[in-house]
Specification:
The complex is a heterodimer. By secondary structure, chain A is α+β, with helices and mostly antiparallel strands. Chain A is 33% helix and 16% strand. A five-stranded mixed beta sheet of chain A has the order 2-1-5-3-4, covered by helices on one side. The longest helix of chain A is centred in the C-terminal third of the chain and has 14 residues. The N terminus of chain B is likely disordered. Chain B is α+β, with helices and mostly antiparallel strands. The chains are: A alpha+beta, B alpha+beta.
């Protein structure tokens, strides 16, 4: 049985009917066509579906849609300010942190939440913070470099 | 082309144009596609490793509200499909050969309905005796998986009988006599490697749509659309021209997405349901029923003179390729890659691959490379220890040089960067490795790829159009699975045409809109596709210059193009824009500017004046060094520093080259340390990402990548292949460091704490 929820999605007030078994991932991808949030395992292990829930990075495959009622959700589609890319988005593209790109939205969102908490992290701290996000293409090195560059710019 | 002025796009770290789409979540992958009326598909898979299908009753599933189609093996053509050997059907007919083989599929309004429908399908199986071990599968009396094997279509015409998928014997010199040489130091060991998943983050996805005329369009995460459309057409029983296959942005491939598993299934369902159908595989399906790097046993014996000269090698390899095979493991390439980068005058390598009732083997980054390098590079290092010789000197003494015939016998090596890589690694070791601490060790290994003549791969073509605003459109059949292939195409066209790279767009990987192309892979894309794009762009450039010469009343030889402007070199004020020339071309008899090129062997021979097939002109060599620390209590290996020097010929895009190599090294670290698909009675037990352990960010060592540039003769701008080589030599570098650190030689992968600890405990004290 569907029931309505209301939440802020990428700064817009949103009301939608959801099934109790839908995950936030399902809601975003299949019901709202926000496919920047990816699907890789549905078990919380790969991190490609990472979004921000009230400012904290969560794996949207592990959050039920109904749980975001009255919450604030930020997805990759809401990160840029108008046409101006977020420094993390630009750095990921420019530093070669993106190959196939399937993990990129999740990494960028996880890094965004992390940099808010820790604006000047060491490389070791970055690596530890991103342990829940898998990348098979880059070997992570250029992801670290991109996050370091974005951190400098944001500071 | 001598007239190209400054290099504008080549050799620069050009960001990938598609990276901006990916960074904003707007890149569309196959699983992101939603069409009006689209249904979701789910697949019913075999729970048995080997069974006869007695009957399938789909009537209850069909009655479930919301179900639009249920398909079984009866809905697919009897024509078998497969990448090299056509050994299967998209949905099983008569028998299942591995746990997870597709038996039926459902298309329904949503995934929950599709899953409920799967539970309503009644399949009666008659279980058959199953065999899981490659050696047991070859024994007399073993259950035979493919009774009709000799009748299957096979692109390689391999030797096959019983459960033997392929057998190759590579022999040079007189091996038996060579081993009788007095004073020879011999060493024999057996190596075992594990099954490795490609581990791409995007599970396979496909969407199919059938129009009113029966024409089928499939969008799928495949890197070889021209090959996969054949499997779709054969499964549907229609000509290939009735299937259009489009590869959108792909979320990683690493060899796995050149195969066809799910695309025929969605096409069959879409035809039956008369609605578009999407299938997005689960991670469990990926790790249960999809392909992995074949597990391998390698018995290796080498004979070496006291001065380090390798005299003889005698080896046999046994690959377990599962119930159906997409790997061609155990082919000629794997036999000769065991000989590696060395001159070995007497060598015998027997490579065999065997069907068993386990999940299929397939291509995984550098097929057969990591298995063979693990054996040969481990073996040589141990021999160096036996001879009390520097392992680098032992390798240099036996390394292939320019002018040597490569181990396959199919070409003469030229443009080798091998010694440069080794010397750079040696310099790094001197510079960067401090005094050895307790439980610390250093290991080195060589990696190689593409020791074959590049002209062997010829299916490629390109079209280059200059638009009326001076921008350029390149049509290429090549897919980009993340390696940056489309960026390379844009850079090459930009360079030749003197148009900024941002003004080049690439339309790619669509079997109707783009020219034919064999597909991404084998570290051959830059070499092959880069060349045809270069040639097509040169064709367009000639047309552009001819038209500009008329406009400027100059001779064609006087002109050059840069930054979107055609100008007289001696008098740059006499100029016109590419846009103006292109716009006016449309109004003249010249029509539009369209350059074309197709690669063919004849063309290469004509242009270069000899048969390129005799020359291995773009060998890809690397030297890897690992410094590790071992926890003597737990057996845990941590990698402190890692270095690799790799010859890329010419780095068309240094950022992408380094990214490929860094990614390759970490891929190899997974193979070396943690990755292993474990199965019991044919069921993969760790089919999830918390037990199948891919490397994560904290696992990355202090990693240094150096690019060596020894240009190829025929690759575009001197480029060589890059993608495969980075992962090949990692496991032996770590294993060699382990022997250096702890005095133990571990010959089985992965080098898990359990395995290392066991070796430490059984070490003679």
């Amino acid at each position: 049985m569907k029931a309505p929820i209301s939440f802020r999605l990428n700064s817009h007030a949103t009301t939608i009917d959801v099934e109790p078994f839908w995950t936030l991932q399902r809601l975003l991808r299949d019901e709202m066509d926000l496919t920047g949030t990816k699907e890789g395992c549905r078990t919380g292990n790969c991190g490609v579906c990472t979004v921000l829930l009230d400012g904290k990075a969560v794996k949207s495959c592990l959050v039920l849609a109904a749980q975001v009622d009255h919450c604030d959700v930020l997805t990759i589609e809401g990160l840029a300010s108008g046409d101006e890319l977020h420094p993390l988005q630009r750095a990921f593209a420019e530093f070669g942190a993106i190959q196939c790109g399937y993990c990129s939205p999740g990494f960028i969102m996880a890094a965004h939440a992390f940099l808010t908490e820790n604006p000047r992290p060491s490389r070791g701290e970055i690596a530890d913070a991103l342990e829940g996000n898998l990348c098979r293409c880059t070997g992570y090195v250029k992801i670290f470099e991109a996050i370091e560059a974005a951190a400098q710019q944001l500071a | 082309m001598a007239t190209i002025a400054e290099q504008q796009a080549i050799g620069r770290p050009v960001p990938k144009p598609d990276a901006y789409l990916k960074a904003t979540g707007t890149a569309v992958y196959a699983g992101d596609i939603r069409l009006p009326g689209m249904l979701e598909a789910r697949v019913l898979r075999s729970p048995h490793p080997h069974a006869r299908i007695v009957s399938i009753d789909t009537s209850e599933a069909e009655k479930l509200p919301g179900v639009f189609a249920v398909a079984t093996g009866q809905d697919v053509s009897p024509t078998r499909i497969g990448r090299f050997l056509r050994d299967r059907h998209a949905l099983a007919q008569e028998k299942v050969l591995y746990v997870g083989e597709p038996v039926a599929a459902v298309a329904a309004v949503d995934e929950e309905t599709a899953e409920r429908a799967l539970q309503l399908i009644e399949v009666e199986y008659e279980p058959l005796p199953a065999v899981f071990d490659a050696r047991e599968a070859l024994a007399e009396g073993a259950p035979i998986l493919h009774p009709d094997l000799p009748t299957y279509f096979d692109t390689a015409r391999s030797v096959r009988q019983g459960n033997l998928r392929n057998r190759v014997v590579h022999e040079v010199g007189d091996v038996d006599a060579a081993f009788r040489e007095p004073g020879l130091v011999t060493y024999e060991a057996t190596y075992h490697t594990a099954r490795q998943s490609q581990g791409f983050t995007e599970p396979r996805a496909a969407v199919a749509q059938v129009d009113g005329s029966g024409k089928v369009t499939v969008w799928a995460s495949v890197k070889a659309p021209f090959r996969v459309r054949v499997s779709v057409a054969d499964s549907l029983g229609v000509p290939v021209s009735r299937v259009r296959l489009i590869s959108p942005v792909i979320g990683g491939d690493f060899g796995g997405k050149g195969a066809s598993f799910i695309e025929p299934i969605v096409a069959v369902l879409a035809r039956k349901a008369k609605r578009p159908v999407r299938l997005h595989l689960s991670r469990v399906e990926e790790l249960t029923a999809m392909t992995s790097r074949a597990a391998c046993e390698i018995r290796l014996k080498m004979g070496v003179r006291p001065d380090g000269t390798i005299v003889a090698m005698d080896a046999s390899m046994l690959y377990n390729v599962g119930g159906v095979d997409d790997s061609q493991a155990g082919g000629a390439n794997s036999a000769t890659s065991l000989i590696g980068a060395y001159r070995i005058p007497n060598a015998r390598v027997i490579a065999e691959s065997v069907f068993t009732n386990t999940s299929p083997a397939g291509h995984v980054r550098a097929p057969s490379g990591p298995q063979t390098a693990f054996a040969t590079e481990s073996h040589l290092d141990h021999l160096a220890r036996m001879l009390r010789m520097d392992p680098i000197e032992l390798r240099l003494k036996n390394a292939l040089h320019d002018g040597d015939v490569v181990p396959s016998g199919h070409g003469v090596l030229q443009n080798s960067g091998l010694e440069d890589c080794i010397e750079r690694a040696r310099a790094w070791m001197r510079r960067s490795l401090g005094p050895k601490r307790a439980n610390q060790g250093v290991g080195l290994a060589l990696g190689l790829w593409a020791l074959h003549p590049n002209a062997a791969a010829v299916e490629s073509a390109a079209t280059v159009k200059i638009d009326v605003d001076g921008s350029v459109v390149v049509l290429s059949g090549i897919a980009d699975q993340g390696g940056g292939q489309w960026t390379m195409v844009a850079q090459v066209a930009s360079e030749v045409l003197g148009v900024p790279v941002e003004r080049v767009s690439v339309v790619a990987a669509d079997t109707e809109a783009t020219p034919p192309e064999q597909g991404t892979g084998g570290s051959q894309t830059t070499y092959r596709v880069g060349n045809v794009v270069r040639q097509a762009a040169e064709d367009a450039r000639r047309q552009l210059i001819r038209l500009a010469a008329e406009q400027l009343k100059a001779d064609e030889e006087e002109l050059d193009v840069a930054d979107g402007t055609v100008f007289v070199v001696a008098d740059p004020d006499r100029r016109t824009s590419v846009a103006d020339v292109a716009a006016k071309a449309g109004a003249t008899a010249a029509g539009v500017i369209i350059g074309t090129s197709a690669a063919s062997r004849e063309r290469e021979i004509r242009e270069h004046g000899h048969d390129q097939a005799e020359v291995v002109d773009a060998p890809s060599f690397a030297c890897h060094v690992a410094q590790i620390t071992v926890d003597p209590e737990t057996g845990q290996i941590s990698v402190d520093k890692y270095y690799t020097a790799q010859d890329v010929g010419r780095a068309l895009n240094p950022l992408n080259c380094k990214g490929q190599i860094e990614g390759g090294v970490v891929f190899g670290l997974g193979y070396a340390l943690t990755e292993e698909i474990i199965s019991e009675n044919g069921t993969n037990l760790n089919a999830n990402l918390w037990e199948y352990l891919l490397p994560t960010a904290p696992h990355v060592p202090d990693l240094t990548v150096e690019l060596v540039e020894v240009p190829s003769t025929y690759g575009p701008f001197g480029a060589k292949g890059v993608g495969e080589t980075g992962c090949i030599a990692v496991a032996p570098a770590i294993a060699n460091a382990l022997e250096d650190a702890m005095g133990i030689r571990v010959t089985d992968l992965p080098l898990t704490p359990e395995r290392v600890r066991q070796a430490l405990q059984s070490r003679p004290s």
